[in-house]
Structure formats: structure tokens, C-alpha cells
Amino acid sequence: MSDYKALTPETLSARLGTLDAMTNLLGGSSTDWQVREVGDGNLNLVFIVEGTAGSVIVKQALPYVRLVGDSWPLPLKRAYFEYHALIRQAERDPGSVPEILHFDETQALIIMERLQPHIILRQQMIAGRKVAGLGETIGRFCARNAFRGSDLSMETAKKKADLALFSDNVELCDITENLVFTDPYFDAEMNRYTTPQLDGVVAELRHDQMLKVEVQHMKRAFSAKAETLCHGDLHAGSIMVTDDESRVIDPEFAFYGPMGFDIGMLIGNYLMAYHAISAHIADDAACASYQEWVLETIDETWTTFCDEFSKLWRTERTGILYPHTLYEDQGHLMASELALEQLLSEIFEDLLGFAGIEMHRRILGLAHIAEFETIEDEDKRAPLETRSLKFGQALVMNRKRLHGIDRVVAMARQSQTGTGTS
Amino acid sequence: MSDYKALTPETLSARLGTLDAMTNLLGGSSTDWQVREVGDGNLNLVFIVEGTAGSVIVKQALPYVRLVGDSWPLPLKRAYFEYHALIRQAERDPGSVPEILHFDETQALIIMERLQPHIILRQQMIAGRKVAGLGETIGRFCARNAFRGSDLSMETAKKKADLALFSDNVELCDITENLVFTDPYFDAEMNRYTTPQLDGVVAELRHDQMLKVEVQHMKRAFSAKAETLCHGDLHAGSIMVTDDESRVIDPEFAFYGPMGFDIGMLIGNYLMAYHAISAHIADDAACASYQEWVLETIDETWTTFCDEFSKLWRTERTGILYPHTLYEDQGHLMASELALEQLLSEIFEDLLGFAGIEMHRRILGLAHIAEFETIEDEDKRAPLETRSLKFGQALVMNRKRLHGIDRVVAMARQSQTGTGTS
């Protein structure tokens, strides 16, 4: 840890006050800057620093899990992986992530653009506010990062070097390996869920041996399908929005994994929001309209992913895989298009598996989501959670047999209607 | 390259003569040692050094591809990967590989146990000599290395560190990516094949768009399915045998890849030997008997792989995947066994794909095999090569629909009988 020292609102200006990254944007004297600690996540310190001319975000890793305390140590190097992920995401999908102004590896801190007036997508959704273009923006983000971080596009020596770099992000992968893929499926110590209302369905899931086989196959994909650089933690808390703009933050869980991982986790979160929203929007018509928008967003996210991925396949396929020499250069366009469609089909299958698992762990594991947590009446919350748990199970078990996002959306819509929520 | 200098038979004793690794085993004065360069592979210098008391092998990488010359540079660091693979293989399957006596990274040289009176399996097979226990020994080698190098067994931080280490073996992976998965399927510069006899079947393969899609899916598995530490080049030239012992050598192509890669490549070689052998054994009964032995060896290799892998699954599953906490500890033994069978099924599918591709590249690509090359009469060679090419195509295209090695063996036997070779 050497010279590392956690920042405080009181010490920040003195410690960082001479950095160009700060003075250029903030203006005035550092002694006049306003510093607020606003970290509401589970892991880090986050400061908003405001000067006379502007403001910045200072994010610093703590040597432990903030949510739990120093009994759960977590290495500072995660800031290093976040930094490396952010610069790659900025290159692969310009404008999609906050601009980096300064990185200090020893202090595990990143000074970055403050997104303003953006709020966390999760808050926006709980408030029942739509975000124009959300599906397109994030679908494109996922496609560009999936494609451009892989052997479809990169020089393979660089891809292999990145694989090596990010494979050191052991501790954050460990969190996912345990909290997402393992703990929810047995009575693990850190789990919690709405009890006793969910006892029955939880017992059912944990006794579903087929489900537990499939989930571990997905965990194996997480651990060994090193296709591309994943964000690693893409959910409604990792997206900041206005009513018509979306940006992605917090890629400290970055790792080389399956192309369907990020978009799958995200769609799992959207489906939970879809199930939870009736508790947050009192007006039936408004609720139905918002739910439709969530489903449209799911559809648009995947549709845009496919469109963008296909465009990149046809225009930027410069990597070692599916080379032009074998396809286009031989006049074999069908081979190229067939390979693309089969790959998209495989990504979709993975997407559904990861979405379903995310819908389990957010209800049964350690880290829950506000969409459900803020429903104070447990008897109201539990049936909605149950619906998500069952839907997740269906996705995992049927991921090879669900054809097209429109069918999944139709299934979500019909199963909602069928069981009623009023 | 700094202080690197290639050894010669004349300089070897003087340069290495004071090393314990040499003097301990060889005995006498280094000036009396007999040194012969015997490298018959494509890449390296290999010396046998004999003293009064014993002998050793000195293997040194050259900074280029020996087969091609210094127009094709190849980094010395491959000796480093070979060394690291050898010590892991020795640990994971004791006695399976030559003992390492000394490693010098700067000189890219490994001094190792001389296997005696072993010869290369390929020579043994061309001579029509069987090897007792071959299938069992190598099936077990593949299973132990597949299992023990993976997240089924290893502490995941160590597995991730090994993934990072071997991901730097870029140049040797590049050889496989090009020579195995790409060049054979179009008119690449370094290709050669028996022409004009094979012109027809070669055109047919290269116009088979479905085949070229499937082969690139397998290439993607090679590049991104980082399940375990593979030998990377396991064929009949990487196994040394007596009539009843088998050892594995030359893992410089080691990389993290699919569990079915090594055993698939090897079985592809066995199937080619099966097709080629009629040209090498004049006596019909002896030929038929040897062919049966080759098929039995294929069966035994995979059957032993399954048995050993299953045993390790039940006794050494200490990694993050398919944990006992979810299965055995819950009394859910069926889940554990089902997951095992499904994983073996997936490995088998990969095996068939890699076997088929190996059967193409050894006939159409740069590096051919002696089983075919030593058949001087091209009109006799071509029909046998054609049979291998077609069989390989069938394996790649039907790998998801061939159930069990016995069915593949039956198919090989029947298609041999059906078309005749006399």
C-alpha cells in the first residue's frame, strides 16, 4: 500500500490542488473548492469537487469493500483496471464514458469528467422517467466494445496482452464468481431475501438440480470464455442518464469474458425493473406505458447490438477470426453472413443465461437493487420478486430454445398480464 | 537476444561442461563427451550428449523457424513456455514427460532426461509396431492436464496467473492460427498438397462454405476458450515410445485453450495413420490387425480420458466451478454427475472438430506427416489422403451429432471397408 492514503473532503483540495487536471477545470483557488463525498456504491470513495469555473469527479478505491468494512479487504489495483477499461471504452465507443483527466496508480484514484445533470439510471427508472435513446446508446456501446475488444477486430498480440493485463483482476472476478454464480443457489452466509414470503420459491430454485447445472455452465463461460473485454458490472446503477442521454461508468470489474455478459446482465436488470415498476407508479395507465417502454428498451438494446455488431462485422473484421481471405475474397459472402448469424445466436443464448442469473442474485444474494428494496411492504414486494425469480429460471433453462428478443419480450408481457399485479 | 548464442556440437561441451545437470549424469570429462545434433523437428536444435556414465538431451530454440530459415523469425521465449509447460505437466501427470535437469532462459535451452530407447511414435506406427498401453497413458495425460490446469481444480488466482503467463506465447499460437485454422482452406502461399490428384477434393473443401464457417467457430474456440493449459501440438511426433511405454515431449506451443484441443489433434493424427497404414504394411492380415489396433487406441484414449476426468471430478474438484457446496453438500449428486456428462459431451464435440481440422491441415497445409509423405507413389497416396480429408470434413460438420467414440470408430472402420484400399 506504501504511500496510499485515503482522501477526505478536508484533505482533498490540499492534496490534489496543484494538479493541472484539477486547476484547469475548476478555476479559482483550491482553498475555495467545495468538496462533497457522494459515493453511494458498495466499494469506493467518490467526491464531487466544485470550483468557480466547473467541477470534476474524484474517485478513489479503498483497500476494502466499503459496504462491508475492512473485514473484507479488496486490492487498490482495481482502480488500475478501471482506468484501463475506461480508456479502451472511450476509444471503442467515443463519448460513451466519462473523460479521464488524471490517473494516479499509487493513490488508486481517477479524476474524471463530472456528468451533469445526469443521475443514475436506476433512480430515473424508479421515478418512472424514460430516457430517449437508451436502448440504442447502450446496445451500441455493448456491440462496439464486444467487437472491438475481440479477435474479430484487434491485432491478436494486443488482444492477448490485454487478456493478460485484465486476468490480474482476480479479486473483483472472485466477487462475481461467488456472489453472482454461487451464493444465490445455496444458503450462503451473506445472502438475504424477503422472508418468509419467498421461502417456497427459494427452496424450489435451490432444489432445481438442472438449474444448478446450467448456472455452473454459465459460470464456466464467465471463467473461460475470454472473447472480449467486458465492463463486468453493467446494470442500471452503472449507467448515468438525463432524459435523452446515457453514459456508462464504473468498469472496475472489467475482465475478458463472453460477448453476451454485459448485455445479459443489463437486460436482467431491465426485466427486474419491469416487474418492480408497478409498485412505484400508482397510476395504472402511466405504469403500463412505462412498462412498455422498458420492454421496448430491452428490444432496442439487443436489436441495436445486432445491427451495430453486423455493421462492424462487415466493415472492421480485421482480426484473426473469420478472415476475409476465406470468405469475401473467395466470393463466399454467404459463409460470412452465416457465421455472423450463428455467432449472434450464441451471444444471445449467453445473454439469456446471464440475464436469468442476474435476476436471481439481485433478489437472493448480497447485493440487492433499489427497484425492489424500496418497496417497503414485503407482501407487495415478494410476488414481484417471485415473478423475476421464475422468469430468470425460465431464461437460464430455455436459453437455447428462445428465438429472438421479441419472443422474450412477448413472454415477459404475457406472463405479466396473466398473473396480474394490481 | 543479448547474450544468446546457438550451440553447435563443437561448442556444446565447452559451454555447458561445468553445469551440475551435465556432469552429474554424464560422468567423465566434458572433453570426452559425444555430441550429436539430432533435431528432426521444424523449429529447434536438439543435441544428444553422451558421457561415460549416461546421456542427456540439450534442446535449444533458434531465433527463427528451422524448417524455413531466418526469413521466418520466431522468438526464443518459446523455450520459456516449454519449460513452464513441462514442469506443470510433470506435476499434473508424474512421469509423463522428460525430467528437466536445467533451464537457461537467456540461452533458450533446456537440458532434460534422455528418453531411451524411445523413438517417435510416428516412426513406430509407420513401422507397424504397436505400443502397449498407448491409449491409456495418453488419455490419462490429457485428462489430468485438462482437469488439473483448469478452474475445476486450480486456485483461480493461480489459474488466472497462468493464463496471463501463457498468453504471451503469441507467435506460436499465431502459427496454429494460420497453418491449422486458415491456410488449408484457401490457396495460401505456404500450402502444398498432392497435385493434381487432390485438385478435385481440395476445390470441393474450399468451396464448402458451411465447413469454412464451422472451422472458424473452432478457431474462435482455440482463441477464446481458455479452459486449461494445452500442450498445443500433441501429435504422433510429440510422443516418444517403446513397445510398452509412452512419454510426451515438446510442449512449446502451450497455451490456455479448450479441453478438447490436445486429444482432438492427436485423434486426428491417429485417424490419418489408420488411413495411411495400408501403404506401409504389405501383408493384408498384418495391416488389418494394425488398423484395428489404431482404432482400439482411439477408443481407449477417449475412454480413458472420460474415466480419469470423471475420477478427478469426483475426487479433486476443488476449483471455483461446479462447487461441492451446490451439489454434493446439498445431496444433489445427480446435478454433479449430469454436469460432468454434459461437460464431457462438450469436450467430445470440440475433440471431433479439432481432429477433423488437423486431418485437413496435415494434407493441405505447410506441415505434412510422414505417414503420407513417405508414400512415394502419389497415385497410391492421393486416395488415402482423400479419405482423410473427407473424414475430417464429416467430423467437423457432424461434431454435435456423433454420439460416442465407438460410433466414430465404427464409422472409420466401415468407410474403410466400404471403399477398399487394396
Can you walk through the features of this model?
Two copies of one chain form a homodimer. Chain A folds into two domains: 12-113, Phosphorylase Kinase, domain 1; 119-419, Aminoglycoside phosphotransferase (APH), C-terminal lobe (Aminoglycoside 3'-phosphotransferase, Chain: A, domain 2). Chain A has a five-stranded antiparallel sheet with strand order 1-2-3-7-6, with helices on both faces. A three-stranded antiparallel sheet of chain A has the order 8-10-11. Chain A has a two-stranded antiparallel ribbon with strand order 4-5. Chain A is an alpha+beta fold and 422 residues long. Chain A is built from 15 helices and twelve strands. The longest helix of chain A has 32 residues, at 284-315. In chain A, helix 10 (261-276) packs antiparallel against helix 14 (378-397), helix 11 runs antiparallel to helix 15 (405-419) and helix 12 runs antiparallel to helix 14 (378-397). The first copy, chain A, starts with 11 loop residues before the first helix and ends with a helix. The first copy, chain A, has helices at 12-16, 20-26, 78-92, 121-126, 134-148, 156-166, 170-180, 199-206, 209-224, 261-276, 284-315, 333-364, 370-373, 378-397, 405-419; strands at 34-37, 44-50, 55-61, 64-65, 69-73, 100-104, 109-113, 119-120, 228-230, 239-241, 246-248, 255-257.
